[in-house]
Design goal:
CATH topology: Ferritin
Distance between the termini: 53 Å
Order of helices and strands: HHEHHEHHHHHH
Low-confidence stretches: none
CATH architecture: Up-down Bundle
Structural class: mainly alpha
Oligomer: single chain
CATH class: Mainly Alpha
Bound molecules: fe (ii) ion
Strand content: under 5%
Largest sheet: 2 strands, parallel
Shape: globular
Strand order of the largest sheet: 1-2
Mean pLDDT: 96
Number of strands: 2
Length: 270
């Protein structure tokens, strides 16, 4: 049976259960990598991903104002924090497979697909790390309501690869670099070392996802001879609702190829 990378992506997207989704994601990532290393490479192919990925019945999806507040000074607050991160990570697994399938008809170097498969594999590990921490704390993913609006950025940018790169890795995942150190501190103060280690792994690996975003965004701008900074500002203003909020992690953003003149101007409404 011939399969394609785009079909593999759709299989992950249409798997509902979190642990099952991440297991299939890791398996497909390993299969893809082996085919790239040893050949013959699995063809990218084309496929039509679902508009929304399959998700488990729980967590119940709620408006952010109805999601429990994260009071980090309490064990319940820390569970809520881990639950929110688990939800972000599961969403990220789908986002990376979605970019592969949805834009599979755009001619791109194979390295584009290698990067997003690798990012999807990282997110799968991140979801499992968070789910493990929740279970060790006597909870589980699905026990609390979760943010309903997570897939909105994908829907907003479903027709435009450059907009997807600008909003998802270069705005949303970059935001993760800004807030994760504070989160690590919360768990360090509570002496919850497994969560500290898990979040440190996430923090270290997220830099590369932002870097893949800026790399391919710059690549596509270069292909059409456009100024990346100007295009970035236009696309974020069009597709991302709200302004960017400092403080920024300027060091990690720089590691990921995001210079200050990309994000500072977006802290103000125009
Ligand atoms: Fe992640
Ligand atoms: Fe990520």
């Amino acid at each position: 049976m011939t399969t394609t990378l785009a079909q593999m992506a759709v299989e992950v997207l249409t798997t509902a259960d979190g642990r099952a989704k991440t297991a299939l994601s890791r398996e497909h990532a390993a299969t893809w990598r082996a085919s790239r290393d040893d050949g013959p490479a699995i063809p990218v192919g084309t496929a039509k991903p679902p508009m929304k990925p399959a998700r488990p019945d729980r967590p119940e999806l709620a408006h952010p104002r109805d999601v429990p507040r994260r009071k980090p000074g309490t064990p319940e607050g820390r569970i809520a924090l881990l639950h929110a991160v688990a939800h972000i990570e599961l969403n990220a697994v789908d986002l990376h497979w979605d970019i592969i399938a949805r834009f599979s008809d755009v001619p791109l170097p194979m390295g584009f697909f290698d990067d997003w498969v690798s990012a999807a594999e990282d997110e799968s590990k991140h979801f499992n790390l968070m789910a493990d921490c929740l279970e060790a704390a006597g909870s589980h993913y699905g026990a609390l309501p979760a943010h309903a609006g997570m897939w909105r950025a994908a829907e907003e940018t479903a027709d435009d690869l450059m907009a997807r790169l600008a909003v998802v890795p270069m705005v949303l995942e970059a935001r993760g670099l800004d807030v994760t150190p504070g989160m690590i501190e919360v768990f360090r103060r509570a002496k919850e070392t497994a969560a500290v280690e898990a979040l440190e792994t996430i923090y270290a690996e997220e830099v590369s996802h932002v870097a893949y975003g800026s790399k391919w965004f710059n690549f596509l701008c270069g292909r059409t001879d456009q100024d990346p900074k100007v295009v970035f500002h236009d696309l974020v203003r069009k597709h991302f609702h709200g302004v960017l909020k400092p403080p920024f992690n300027e060091e990690k953003r720089a590691d990921a190829g995001l210079p200050p003149d990309f994000y500072w101007p977006l802290t103000e409404d125009v």
